[in-house]
């Protein structure tokens, strides 16, 4: 379909789109590892859903390809089936259209890659390539236009638009999903998102999913300021879990009819439904808008892109700067000393308090960093212990892993640690897998990795949660990340380090180093000194046998042969040798790093003071 023809249809009337595909497949075929795969395994189910919506009055049916991109399909071993799945989806939709009693347009459905949920990023070029591949397959089989829907990240949506426009002149409808506060899950307000999309070569913009009919209306009103035609496709309402099923409320068709009339008054030209909606909802919408003639909107944009105005209508919130004592010392150039401790296995804290008090009383230690489930072994929660130490006036850097909690739990823990516990520094880690620990039968959560956790922290510092909702205040965590200069794959380690910095990291802490040569090689590979302060890990070894075990059994630990040889030759004096090596490393580090964290041997925390004489 030509853009001019599509624009003319939007100008002259309201197009009724179909409703949910995924929840309808779920009802008809049960749980699936991929709803897109159903195009291949049970095409009759998809065909039947298309027919039901057409019979209900839908003038637009969407291909069953919401997640049919290489990134999503590769996660279930179907990365090489992108073209076949998309081709089959269009074929099924065309067969349903051929039997339709009225004219039907086929929208090529394209959804987000799921990166925001995973807390991941991909290079822009790779994202564009993924969308180009899927969109080209859809266009090749004969879709009339593209519907980019349920995007949580505006920047990713812009990349998808650019990918399509690199080869296609078909119309594009670009739709984001918003929370109840009217912002995307990336924190962009609806009006600003509409403004930015209005600068793109798209023919309509809109909102779908997440919200039910009534909460979607304020979002549409905000987007209407762009002057473009709007697309409105709400959920049936908020879902709930019943057993192993996700169930949507039974919103009445009359409720959707009333919504459709209000949406059209707001500027909607495409009206349909999303998750939980059925052919009955679409029938009610079709009846409600049959004779409506919406008010004029400004002309939709052609394929050429004009230069946008200088400023969007709303400013993006900025992260609150750290204010911790640790951060002030790092910023002033003071060499910081931290001592690493392990939380107790049980409930008693007296021994921990006694040891930490002695260490801090020396006046030679600035902060205490607290392990979190090292090697996936159970101990007291590091954030809770940090709060207890902060209450005693001791600054802490608790480690937080993404192994044990989902994004909701991580945010809840961080908000409590900041507000109640007084915690101001956090080291963001992915965490060792449970198979290493004392509960190998359990599974890790890993909803995000350490890079995603840095993004969570950065958003809390900007006063919003992961979903972009305002918190009524901002944290100001100093965000730390791990860095392994002895990693086997340094290219991969450097790439992740850079992504952590881009996500918002303020400082880094290395794996324990036992030879300066490893750091020099890492910096050379990096191409320049690290752009953020780095604390080097120093571990005074106490025996040859301990060193051999660490080198061979602990992930990420590398002890050079020369160090092993010195410890072996030292025999009974191995501890003195290990401490002497650690002191020399600490002296070397004072000219290379922003600080050091010291790992006490066998949890005898006071012994690390021997390194600071």
Can you put this structure into words, describing what you see?
The protein has 23 helices and 18 strands. The strands form 3 sheets. The chain has an 8-stranded parallel beta sheet with strand order 1-10-7-6-5-4-3-2. The longest helix is centred in the N-terminal third of the chain and has 18 residues, at 124-141. The protein has 2 domains: 3-289, TIM Barrel (Alpha-Beta Barrel), CATH 3.20.20.330; 325-541 and 592-612, TIM Barrel, CATH 3.20.20.220. It is 41% helix and 14% strand. The chain has 613 residues and is of the alpha/beta class. The radius of gyration is 29 Å and the shape is elongated.
The total of helices stands at: 23
Low-pLDDT residue spans: 299-316
- State the separation between the terminal residues, measured CA to CA: 78 Å
Helix content: 40-55%
Radius of gyration: 29 Å
Average pLDDT rating: 90
What is the strand tally? 18
Structural class of the helix and strand makeup? alpha/beta
> How are the strands ordered across the major sheet?
1-10-7-6-5-4-3-2
Could you name the CATH topology of the largest domain? Answer: TIM Barrel
The dominant shape is elongated
Largest sheet: 8 strands, parallel
CATH superfamily of the largest domain: Homocysteine-binding-like domain
Number of domains: 2
Per CATH, the class of the largest domain reads Alpha Beta
Tell me what portion of residues adopts beta-strand conformation: 5-15%
SSE blueprint and pairings:
Blueprint: H1 3-12, E1 15-16, H2 22-29, H3 38-41, H4 43-56, E2 60-62, H5 70-74, H6 82-98, E3 105-110, H7 115-118, H8 124-141, E4 145-151, H9 154-165, E5 172-176, H10 190-198, E6 204-208, H11 213-223, E7 229-233, E8 240-242, E9 245-247, H12 253-266, E10 268-271, H13 279-289, H14 325-332, E11 336-341, H15 350-361, E12 367-370, H16 382-390, E13 396-401, H17 407-419, E14 425-429, H18 450-461, E15 478-483, H19 490-503, E16 507-512, H20 516-526, E17 534-538, H21 544-553, H22 561-570, H23 574-589, E18 595-598
Parallel strand pairs: 1-10, 2-3, 3-4, 4-5, 5-6, 6-7, 7-10, 11-12, 11-18, 12-13, 13-14, 14-15, 15-16, 16-17, 17-18
Antiparallel strand pairs: 8-9
């Amino acid at each position: 379909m030509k853009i001019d023809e599509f624009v003319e249809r939007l100008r002259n009337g309201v197009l009724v789109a179909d409703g949910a595909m995924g929840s309808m497949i779920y009802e008809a075929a049960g749980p699936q590892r991929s709803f897109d795969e159903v195009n291949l395994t049970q095409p009759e189910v998809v065909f039947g859903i298309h027919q039901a919506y057409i019979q209900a009055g839908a003038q637009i049916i969407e291909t069953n390809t919401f997640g049919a991109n290489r990134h999503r399909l590769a996660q279930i071993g179907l990365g090489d089936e992108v073209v076949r799945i998309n081709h089959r989806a269009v074929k099924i939709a065309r067969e349903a259209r051929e039997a339709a009693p009225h004219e039907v347009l086929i929208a090529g459905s394209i959804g987000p890659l799921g990166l925001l949920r995973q807390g991941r990023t991909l290079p822009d070029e790779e994202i564009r390539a993924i969308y180009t591949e899927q969109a080209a397959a859809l266009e090749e089989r004969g879709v009339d236009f593209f519907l980019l829907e349920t995007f949580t990240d505006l920047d990713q949506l812009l990349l998808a638009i650019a990918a399509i426009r690199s080869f296609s002149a078909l119309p594009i409808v670009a739709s984001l999903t918003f929370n109840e506060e009217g912002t995307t899950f990336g924190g962009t307000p609806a009006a600003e998102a509409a403004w930015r999309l209005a600068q793109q070569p798209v023919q309509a913009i809109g909102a779908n999913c997440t919200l039910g009919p009534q909460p979607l209306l304020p979002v549409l009103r905000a987007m209407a300021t762009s002057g473009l035609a709007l697309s409105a496709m709400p959920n049936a309402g908020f879902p709930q879990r019943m057993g192993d099923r996700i169930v949507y409320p039974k919103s009445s068709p009359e409720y959707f009819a009333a919504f459709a009339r209000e949406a059209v008054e707001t500027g909607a030209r495409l009206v349909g439904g999303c998750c939980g909606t059925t052919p009955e909802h679409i029938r009610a919408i079709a009846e409600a808008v049959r004779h409506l003639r919406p008010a004029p909107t400004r002309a939709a944009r052609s394929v050429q892109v004009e230069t946008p105005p200088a400023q969007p209508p709303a400013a993006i919130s900025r992260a609150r700067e750290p204010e911790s004592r640790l951060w002030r010392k790092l910023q002033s150039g003071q060499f910081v000393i931290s001592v690493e401790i392990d939380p107790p296995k049980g409930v008693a804290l007296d021994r921990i308090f006694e040891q930490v008090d002695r260490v801090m009383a020396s006046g030679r230690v600035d902060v205490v960093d607290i392990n979190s489930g090292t090697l996936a072994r159970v101990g007291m929660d590091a954030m809770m212990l940090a709060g207890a130490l902060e209450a005693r006036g001791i600054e802490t850097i608790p480690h937080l892993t993404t192994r044990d909690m989902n994004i909701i739990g991580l945010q809840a823990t961080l908000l409590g640690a900041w507000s109640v516990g007084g915690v101001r520094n956090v080291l963001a880690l992915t965490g060792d897998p449970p198979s290493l620990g004392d509960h190998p039968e359990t599974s890790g959560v890993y909803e995000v990795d350490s890079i995603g956790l840095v993004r969570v922290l950065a958003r809390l510092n900007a006063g919003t949660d992961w979903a972009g909702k305002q918190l009524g205040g901002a944290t100001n965590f100093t965000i730390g990340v791990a860095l392994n200069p002895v990693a086997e794959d340094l290219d991969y380690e450097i790439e992740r380090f850079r992504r952590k910095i881009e996500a918002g990291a303020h400082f880094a802490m290395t794996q324990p180093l036992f030879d300066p040569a490893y750091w020099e090689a890492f910096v050379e590979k990096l191409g320049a000194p690290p752009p953020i302060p780095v604390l080097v890990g120093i571990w005074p070894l106490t025996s040859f046998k301990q060193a051999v075990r660490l080198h061979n059994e602990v992930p990420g630990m590398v002890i050079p042969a020369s160090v092993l040889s010195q410890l072996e030759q030292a025999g009974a004096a191995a501890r003195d040798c290990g401490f002497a090596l650690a002191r020399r490393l600490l002296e070397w580090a004072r000219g290379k790093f922003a600080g050091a964290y010291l790992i006490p041997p066998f949890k005898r925390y006071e012994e690390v003071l021997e390194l600071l004489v």
